Amino acid sequence: MSAGRTRVGALGAALSVALIAAACGGDDGSAGDDAATATTDGAAPATTEAPTETTKAPTGTTEQPKATPEPTSIEEWEALWAEERAEVVERIKENKWGKTADGTKVVGPEGFTIDLTACPAGWSDTQGLTDTEIKIGNPTALSGTAADFGNISKTTAAWFTYLGDNGAFKDSTGKTRKINYIVKDDGYDATRTIPLVDELLDSDKVFAVQTLGTPAGLKVYDKINDACVPHPFEISGSPAWGDPEQHPWTTGSLLSYLTEAVIWGAFIDQHIDEFTADGGKVRIAALVAESDFGAAYESAMRSVIASSPNKDKIELVTEKLPITAPTITDAMTTLASKEPNIFITMTGAVQCTQIINEVANNGMDATLKYKFMSSVCKSSAYVGKDKVGGDGSQSNGWYIVGGGQKDIVVAAEQGDAFSKWAVDFLADNGLDAKLSSNFGNGFYQAWMWTQVLQIAGELDGGLTRTNFVTALRAFEGTSPVHLSGIKINLNGNADGYPLEGSDLSVYDSAKQSWVVQGNIIELSGKSPNCTWDPSVNSCG
After folding, report:
1. Could you give phi then psi for residue 428, rounded to 5 degrees?
2. 126 - beta bridge partners?
3. Rounded mean pLDDT for each run of 10 residues along the chain, 540 residues in total
4. CA 216 to chain centre
5. Sign of CA dihedral 245, 252, 448, 468
6. N vs C: which end of the chain shows fewer Cβ within 10 Å?
7. Which residue, 143, 221, 235, 231, is CA-closest to 188?
8. For residues 357 and 414, what is the distance between their CA atoms, to the nearest angstrom?
């Protein structure tokens, strides 16, 4: 069996156990009624029309995350984060993780190691730092059809300024810094990302770099790691970022597309009899982004199908288009002609909305029983009625494996304390949360950045690149924009993915929100690490 098949099988086994508790609430009720009825926005529980077939999962039990009360003010959130940071700092110091006394390597949890002698000549542990400044670079999409993703950086910039102005980045050496956030427009074009990263490393001499999108990340992460520069929170779900041994300076931030595909596959296996009772097959159609992003999705799904006990009953048909293509009508018409039973979105940005409208208008809905948006399409900016037109009914009934993230606009309307604060915070900074859900998504990225920077600053020697990567690989904290029960953590070489939990939700157009089906699916530490093989767009 190939390594890819082994990874899918291991994750699938963990998932099948998690799905039982997600659907049934566990044997001892430890998840609580709150978890069973949670939604991404605080809306009411799923309606009686919502499917309940997820209870078909194999029997068994697993521990599910307990629902705990969330902080009710930004002050309470900040107090919680301070406690969590202190716990991470204590764990790092107790285990003597970090740069060794001889300066030749970094050590961390579960055998995590970086050989600093392999860093380039003249490498500095403090490049990008002054007594008053932390220089961080971010090539991202500020123009073109994927420019909505660039709104993440606008929230991040505002959050950096807010914390810097409040003295949050005072480290153990007594230095108090603010962040100089250097954002450059790559238009979601990986060929433009490469020279921008060169500028950030060689001319701007930044402390760390964050990139956006699988194509860009794969083009530059070797270079960034060879330069021994932190490259955290790549804004993509490619499994490639889960590689702490070969790419120790890089992590992802989103739910891995492999984990997402495994959940899709488990859902299909549970529903297989609905399509194959007469000996037929289930036909899945997918619009795939023509890039490394889409290739990662498609490769993951094909691996999942190959590992399924129902593989001979499943057919996957695809059409490919660049994510920057202005229209998708021809590709979607071709897919409609295949009369699929299930549709899966393997692209993002404005194509999320276009897909919903095409499915509603090209006749595909007549044969589809289940429709899945990709996790990156979760925002109301893609599925809300003001985007799909009319009463918004076109979005009704679409499923999503959403990574557990809230839409802060809807959540604020439902009384979520942080989301209410966040919407007001954006407004105070000239940003309208209703115009783009990526303004809300930016809080996740900004929160992770600032937590790890503050932990690193509290370590002996203060903020350095090696303290940053040590804090990163030992990080654990509570995200303010994820559903209760979603864990954000890394664990050295044992766990290279910060986010492995998800909701399985259905869009309710009457509520204009995603409604969670069952409990949170939490797979923290279960997604196997990945050494990416670009020749097959899969883990090697």
Report:
1. -65, -20
2. none
3. 52 51 38 32 33 32 55 96 98 98 98 98 98 98 90 98 97 97 96 98 98 96 98 95 97 94 93 88 96 92 94 96 92 96 94 94 92 90 82 91 92 94 98 91 97 98 98 98 95 97 93 89 91 87
4. 16
5. positive
6. N
7. 143
8. 27
> For 87, what's the count of Cα atoms within 13 Å in the CB-facing half-sphere?
11
How far is Cα 139 from Cα 141, in angstroms, rounded to an integer?
Answer: 7
User: Does residue 525 sit in helix, strand or coil?
Assistant: coil
> How far apart (Å, rounded) are the C-alpha atoms in residues 177 and 135?
10
Number of neighbours of residue 225 by Cβ within 10 angstroms: 19
- Quick check: 2 and 500 in contact, CB under 8 A? no
The domains found in the chain, sorted by start residue, are 3-69+257-401+503-539 (3.40.50.2300), 116-254+413-462+479-489 (3.40.50.2300)
Helix boundaries (H) for 3-52: 3-24, 32-36
DSSP line for 41-99: SS-PPPPTTS--GGGGSPS-----PPP-PPPSSHHHHHHHHHHHHHHHHHHHHHTT-EE
Angle at CA 480, nearest 5°, toward 433 and 407?
35
Tokens 């299930």 correspond to 342
Q: Which residues are CB-neighbours of 271 under 8 A, at least 6 positions away?
A: 53, 56, 369, 370
The per-residue pLDDT for 7 is: 59
